Amino acid sequence: MNEAARDAFNHELLRFLGASPTPFHAVGALAALLEEGGFRELREQDAWACEAGGRYFVRRNGSSLIAFVRGRAAAEDAGLRMAGAHTDSPCLRLKPRPERRRSGYLQLGVEVYGGALLNPWFDRDLSIAGRVSYATAGGVAHALIDFREPVAVIPSLAIHLDREANSGRAVNAQNHLPALLALADSEPRDFAAIVLGRLREEHPDCGAERVLDCELSLYDTQPPRLVGLHREFIAGARLDNLLSCFAGVRALMESDGEFDAIMVCNDHEEVGSVSAAGAQGPMLNSLLARLLPERERRERALALSLMISADNAHGVHPNFADKHDGNHGPALNAGPVIKVNASQRYATNSETAALFRWLCEAEGVPVQSFAVRSDMACGSTIGPLTAANVGVRTLDVGVPTFAMHSPRELAGTRDLHALARVLSRFFRRPAL
Question: Fewer CB atoms inside 10 Å of the end CB: C or N, the chain?
Answer without folding.
Answer: N
